[in-house]
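Input/output pair, single chain:
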Amino acid sequence: MSGWPPGSGSLLAPPPPPRRATKPSRGSKERRLEAKRQRGQTKQAPRTGPGLGRA
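Output:
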């Protein structure tokens, strides 16, 4: 036996093809920015309640 794990021998899968850089679609950009706006509003919400002032 020559390889590990046992029984593998020299049978390797071919390497995957190289990745091709692509531009995000307009819809995916808009969805991402909308999600960022929602997260920003979520983080702002606790700050605007009463009694949160610091002395």
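The mean pLDDT is 81. Helices lie at 26-44.
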